[in-house]
Amino acid sequence: MSAPAMTRRPVPTRSTATGPSRTTSPRGKRPRNDFRVALVFIGPAALGFIVFFLVPTLRGIWFSFTDQNLIGAGEFIGLENYTRMFADPLFWNSLLVTLEYVFINIAVQTVLAVGIAVLMHRLTQSVVIRGIVLLPYLVANVVVALVWFWMFDYSTGVVNVIIDTIGLDRMAFFGNEATAIPTIALINVWRHVGYTALLIFAGLQTIPKELYEAGAIDGASEARMFRSITLPLLRPVMALVLVITVVGSFQIFDTVAVTTEGGPVDATRVIYYYIYQQAFQRFDLGYASALSVFLLVVLAVVAFIQLRLLRSNRSDLA
Amino acid sequence: MTHRSRTRRLALSGLAGIAAIPLVLTGCSAQPTGDEAASITYWLWDSNQQPAYQQCADDFEEQSGVHVTIEQYGWADYWQGLTTGFASATAPDVFADHLSYFPEFVSQGQLLGISDRIEADGIDLDIYQDGLADLWHDQDGERYGLPKDFDTVALFYNEQMAADAGLTSEQLANLEWNPTEGGSFEQAIAALTVDVNGVRGSEPGFDKNNVAVYGLALSGNGLNASGQQTWAPYALGNDWYYGDTTPWTTEFAFGDAKLAETLEWYRSLQEKGYMPTVDIALSEQDPLNGYLAGRYATVTDGSWMNGSYLGQDDVPTKVAPTPVGPSGSRASLFNGLSDGIWSGTKNPDAAWEWVKYLGSTDCQDVIAESAVVFPAIKSSTEKANEAFAEKGWDVSGFTVQVDEGTTALLPIADHWSEVNDTVTAAIQSFLNGTGDPATLSDANDQVNALFE
């Protein structure tokens, strides 16, 4: 395959602005003027980034090396929070539980979302259907969690009433250690699958129709076209979608907080909930920060690996 | 010059404006109490109690001139709001305090000590139900709140189902249990349990895997380290207590054989089909829904639930006390709330006057008349009983524990949130069958290690 088009795209602006035909005086002035204008444009975003992201992140990293509590300055305690973390069985448990959640959530969600997106792409262009697919995403997380918890209620929930009516055994969806995480993962699939499908659908729009026409002429089946045309050309979009959804999935918190609160036993004590408990129930902000920093590193590594593996900056459409 | 002076004037007026903000927000902070402008904020979480406390606040303002703004938040938001309020210095001047949060607040220095003020104003702590005032002090004896109300637990039961099972209210009020064969309590629970074929738990041919009505509900909210509305009434009636002492427990007894014995019996109720499993309990919002839907014949719950169980017309409901245990007496946790003052308040004097008023008969009688909770003052408790009776509610199943002195105080300890997490997990796994006595003693060693 030839070198991808995107990497060969010429870089505009600078080279023309500082081209050899320019005299020295405007050359000295132009960039400074650009710089001022750029500052005006970047300023607000940069300010927001510094105030809401950079400073809290740096403070969080600093806290992770202190015994900071709810109020008052913590004292520097070196790596104590980190050594405690690696020896903390609940931390490892929370990591495993989170991974289980992410795996179920992402695997089911991605497969379903690709399916829905392809169906929308190949069968219908209806805006109404697109709207319906997105509907669950418009409901707040906490509301979704509460409504499902209520519907899954063992005694009075509509799901269990239906299960009972058709002659099956009622299920303790949230109360059983084995089913609690899959239940929470699938509820969030329900909420996010439409949004993910729309992102993928947008990616599908970039695939030229001629390829499918050519495929059809060659006698390829829908399944074959999906495998040989859709999937390979969707890769850059899929990479982006996966990074966004995996990072988001790791941050599972609200569904757990309003339904199981980490239980039964420790079955749903996901890492974000554990961090929350350390920070806001035990006021151990230092330790909570160390856990957060660890999670930050993990997510950065995950995102980096995903982007590399999926070669997201390269398209097969060359 | 003009430019400079204008800038200065602007700066000064700006500064004055900024300086005025806290004054506007907190009233005249430096003013002594009784000043007309004095204003404080008070937080509580129970919306059912808000009208009565609003009445107290109005009476208090008339009397002292201090305006009290009452803000109510749901249980979870309440504690989150309070802790973030502490961190950002925007917490309310006075707030309703709970024993499971109190130790952390004390250790974080968020509560204002009131021992001196109690002494200076000659507050008589003997007017409160025994033991309640002594819950709210730190290890050095400094006090941080005056008691406002108390709660105990009892058995709410479906009158119709009890009659169908051939149980009278006298029988239900005089049940006893033991960990070996369960006693008359287990027999009653078995008789109240009915399978899908209409066979009772006490009859041959009972299908424990297809239960239509459980004799006893299991509250998922109560499956924690205090076990208030689940296992604690039995364990406490079996000569067991959480730890060496309270307040400020430093050595816990969750590894004790008496607790394991009690929990083993409690677990057997699930295995026999008389009580739902832990899985079921944890997948329900509250046993109240199942009770109203006719799936539970009895529910152990706290007196704070009186309105929900007795204030509805769908299921005819009565209250029975918890059964008498092997110790020879019944038992219930005795939990109380207090009103505490935030250490960061700009208005400590007005806040104290309000706390003092909340802890007085003037206010607690108003609370009593609203018949929502039991006020902490003995004479007001009497009035609350009368008010409940006027509504046609017999709540003696709750108060008998206080009258007979069979209550036990909630353990108050540092690291309680961590103790609770660890023990909750152990108790849940013990009761769902994956844990054994060693699980409990391991958890106990773990929590005791926090105090070494």
Give me the secondary-structure topology.
The complex is a heterodimer of chains A (318) and B (452).
Chain A: H1 5-8, H2 14-17, H3 24-63, H4 80-86, H5 89-123, H6 127-138, H7 141-151, H8 158-165, H9 180-205, H10 209-217, H11 222-250, H12 254-258, H13 271-281, H14 285-309
Helix pairs in contact in A: 3-14, 4-14, 5-9, 5-11, 6-9, 7-9, 9-11, 11-14, 13-14
Chain B: H1 2-26, E1 39-44, H2 50-64, E2 67-72, H3 75-87, E3 94-97, H4 102-107, H5 115-120, E4 146-151, E5 153-158, H6 159-164, H7 169-173, H8 183-192, E6 194-195, E7 211-213, H9 232-236, H10 257-271, H11 278-282, H12 287-292, E8 298-302, H13 306-310, E9 317-320, E10 332-341, H14 348-358, H15 361-370, E11 374-375, H16 378-390, H17 396-403, E12 407-409, H18 416-431, H19 437-449
Parallel strand pairs in B: 1-2, 1-3, 10-12
Antiparallel strand pairs in B: 3-10, 4-10, 4-11, 5-8, 5-9, 6-7
CATH superfamily of the domain at 24-149 and 336-390 in chain B: Periplasmic binding protein-like II
- How far is the N terminus from the C terminus of chain A? 8 Å
Number of helical stretches of at least 4 residues of chain A: 14
Give the oligomeric state of the chains in this entry, treating copies of one chain as homo and distinct chains as hetero. heterodimer
* Annotated CATH homologous superfamily of the domain at 89-309 in chain A: MetI-like
Structural class of chain A: mainly alpha
Please identify the structural class of chain B as seen in this structure.
Answer: alpha/beta
Q: Can you tell me the CATH architecture of the domain at 89-309 in chain A?
A: Orthogonal Bundle
- The amount of helix of chain B comes to 40-55%
Q: Ranges of chain A with pLDDT <50 over ≥5 residues?
A: 1-28
For this structure, the CATH topology of the domain at 89-309 in chain A is: MetI-like fold
Q: Based on Cα principal axes, name the global outline of chain A.
A: globular
Percentage of residues in strands of chain A: under 5%
CATH class of the domain at 24-149 and 336-390 in chain B: Alpha Beta
| Greatest interface by residues involved | A-B, 27 and 35 residues
Please state the overall shape of chain B, judged from the principal axes of the Cα atoms. globular
What distance separates the N and C termini of chain B?
A: 68 Å
